[in-house]
Design goal:
The structure holds two protein chains of two kinds.
Chain A lengths: L4 E12 L2 E13 L4 E5 L6 H8 L7 E6 L4 H6 L3 E4 L11 H11 L4 H14 L15 H13 L5 E5 L7 H18 L2 E6 L2 H7 L2 E6 L4 E7 L14 H16 L2 H4 L1
Parallel strand pairs in A: 3-7, 3-8, 5-6, 6-7
Antiparallel strand pairs in A: 1-2, 1-4, 8-9
Chain B lengths: L1 H41 L5 H8 L10 H12 L10 H32 L1 H16 L2 H17 L3 H6 L3 H29 L4 H9 L4 H36 L8 H10 L3 H32 L6
Helix pairs in contact in B: 1-2, 3-12, 4-5, 4-8, 4-10, 4-11, 6-8, 8-10, 10-12, 11-12
The chains are: A alpha/beta, B mainly alpha.
């Protein structure tokens, strides 16, 4: 089975007027099909940069990376992934269904095909009935769900999510997290998920990648022992707390708190 | 809501009232000299009321009073058939047609240049200085040259003229519209360059993740984002276009159009005529900007804008 993402000695240095900033240094990582991988770490640890490298939105300066066995550029050109940004980034002049249709229009799906996919993905994110609404008529959580539907619409096997729930309040966040797990179970996609919330990472992931800043690097990779079926109450169990503890230890090992 | 609208109407009403009062005072003061001059030549003594009333109804005033202009405007528009060559509406239409043609050409040219500048690195560096330079040329000086040149190209013995087969009227219309275009493309370029560059980075990244083509990104993202900028520029452009059409009629020996009426009025010292043309141009400009605003509201509503 080929890895969905495979990074070897990956490094990325931004050249700025104030000198070089090392965003990623010597990252080695494999993501297998069907995994839910969370990247966690304080700001500046390169977690978003790593996601953007996978998406071919940034170019690594050293090492190698393959996505679905291709270069990130080839993977992007063959539309291998859906990307969910920090903000919903919905086009305000398009209704919800037209927003979900956007990638389908670009990729040249037929009208009938579009309709079917819109209906299916909006149902997956529980937005059936909101097709004709404009983004501003929806709450923040619903907007982010619409943007997830948009990323799912063209059936890429890999979903890249960059702190998608970071701007939402905790109650909405809990709800969307359990929705996301259902979606993960239903679609069998591979998900790479950036977050800075320890409970979120532990609750969602099958694998947690702990990162630390200056330079951005991986300090720990934790395989979750939690079952696939995860009610919200699982967050009170000793097993959950133990993994959370190990994540916290990993973050501390990176001296991230002392530095920031 | 109604209270705000009412107060807005009230504010405009007050402003207009103040302007009219200032205008009347100005008319009395500016015409005072001419009137007293003439009265002293008559030898007879006149009361103050006499002098003031005469300053407001003098046939060859320095500054005509508002009601004189209003009466002249009324007589030259609504009492004559629009096809009558003495009707200002006839002349307004001549100018308006050149304005609209120039506005359309200017908007199209502006959008095309803006697209070129936004999509092409080299163009963005090389074109903008020329575009700005074009607007520093005094239009009044170059207008006759451009109008005559365009007219000759369109009607003379050359391939273009033979291809187009235009009559003199059409050639005249186009040559005036060229000046209107010259003035109106500029705000559109500036506004649209800004507008086409206004999508957020996250939205451009999104299009990149879909591997969208440049054309798709322009059509699906940059263009809709630029629409509010387009309308703001078009409001400036349509007014500039009217100025351009009038300027094009001024020094080129045109016999019809608002510009021609202005010039004839000034040759004959007909201040009343000049002022009614000026007032009509102002009304026309206001209506044009209003029309663009109405189209804007329709388009923006269709694009799902949140009601204010």
């Amino acid at each position: 089975m080929t890895a969905v993402v495979s990074a070897k000695n990956l490094g990325l240095t931004f050249r700025t007027n104030d000198g070089d900033v090392v965003a990623l240094s010597d990252v080695n990582l494999e993501v297998q099909p069907g995994e839910f991988v969370s990247f966690i770490g304080p700001s500046g640890c390169g977690k978003t940069t790593f996601l953007r490298v996978i998406a071919d939105l940034e170019q690594p300066t050293s090492g190698t990376i393959s996505v679905n066995g291709m270069t990130p550029e080839a993977a992007r050109k063959s539309r291998s992934y859906g990307y969910v940004f920090q903000a919903p980034a919905l086009f305000p002049w398009r209704t919800i269904e037209k927003n979900v249709a956007l990638p389908l229009e670009i990729m040249g799906h037929s009208d009938a095909e579009r309709k079917a996919r819109i209906a299916r993905t909006l149902e997956l994110v529980n937005l059936t009935g909101f097709e004709r609404k404009f983004p501003w008529q929806l709450s923040g959580g619903m907007q982010q769900r619409a943007s997830i539907a948009r990323a799912l619409a063209f059936d890429a096997d890999l979903l890249l999510m960059d702190e998608p729930f970071g701007a939402l309040d905790e109650i909405v966040r809990d709800h969307l997290n359990s929705e996301l797990l259902k979606l993960f179970a239903a679609t069998k996609k591979t998900i790479a998920f950036v977050t800075h919330s320890i409970p979120e990472a532990v609750y969602l992931s099958t694998k947690i990648v702990v990162m630390s800043p200056r330079p951005g690097r991986v300090t720990d990779i934790i395989d979750s022992t939690l079952p696939a079926e995860r009610p919200l109450e699982i967050r009170e169990t000793p097993e959950f707390l133990e993994i959370a503890h190990r994540v916290r230890e990993g973050l501390r090992a990176g001296h991230s708190y002392e530095q920031s | 809501m109604t209270a705000i609208r009412d107060s807005k109407v009230f504010a405009i009403f007050v402003l207009v009232l103040v302007l009219i009062v200032v205008w009347y005072v100005g008319a009395v003061l500016l015409n005072w000299g001419v009137v007293t001059d003439r009265f002293s030549r008559d030898g007879a003594t006149h009361s103050l009321t006499d002098i003031v009333l005469t300053t407001l109804s003098y046939t060859r005033p320095v500054l005509p009073a508002p009601h004189q202009v209003a009466v002249d405007l009324w007589n030259t528009t609504l009492t004559l058939a629009p096809s009558n060559k003495r009707s200002l509406l006839y002349h307004a239409w001549i100018t308006l047609s050149a304005t609209l043609l120039g506005f359309v050409m200017g908007t199209v040219l502006g959008v095309v240049l803006a697209l070129f500048i936004v999509l092409n690195q080299a163009a963005s560096r090389s074109l903008m200085p020329w575009i700005i330079a074009s607007q520093t040329v005094p239009i009044l000086a170059v207008a006759p040259v451009i109008v005559v040149l365009t007219y000759n190209v369109l009607t003379g013995q050359n391939a273009v003229a033979q291809l187009l087969h235009l009559d003199a009227d059409a050639a005249q219309l186009i040559s005036k519209a060229v000046i209107a275009t010259y003035l109106s493309f500029f705000p559109v370029v500036v506004g649209m360059v800004k507008g086409l560059r206004s999508p957020e980075t996250i939205q451009l990244d999104l299009m990149r993740t879909y591997n969208a083509t440049t054309t798709q990104t322009v059509w699906l993202l940059r263009w809709p984002t630029a629409v509010p900028f387009l309308f703001a520029s078009m409001k400036v452009a349509v007014a500039a276009s009217l100025v351009g059409a009038i300027v094009a009629e001024l020094p080129t020996g045109a016999v019809s159009g608002l510009g021609a009426r202005l010039l004839i009025g000034s040759y004959n010292g007909q201040m009343v005529q000049i002022w009614s043309v000026l007032l009509l141009s102002a009304i026309l400009a206001g209506l044009l900007v209003l029309a663009v605003g109405i189209v804007e509201r329709l388009v923006v509503a269709r694009m799902g804008a949140r009601p204010a």
